[in-house]
Specification:
Elements lengths: L5 H9 L12 H8 L8 H6 L5 H18 L2
Helix pairs in contact: 1-4, 2-4
Length: 73
């Protein structure tokens, strides 16, 4: 949340849920890199379970972010 400016937050909040996949190579990549989700010992990855892929975790985070921006504001 803190790395996004107000314009980016508004743009995400206005997206349709089925279009969140469009953020996979931008915001999703930033999340995967920031949290080291490709590393097997990433604390966040471990918390999701051993069979969950980094892409799935970043998608879940984006979905939660979208939901929070859309419905909590």
């Amino acid at each position: 949340m803190s790395i996004l400016d107000d314009e980016q937050k508004t743009a995400i909040a206005m997206m349709r849920e089925e279009n969140l996949i469009d953020l996979h190579f931008s915001l999703g990549m930033a999340i995967r890199n920031a949290f080291g989700l490709h590393a097997p010992d990433s604390k966040l990855k471990v918390s999701f379970g051993p069979l969950i892929q980094a892409d799935d975790i970043s998608a879940e985070i984006i979905n939660k972010l979208w939901s929070r921006l859309k419905y909590d504001n």
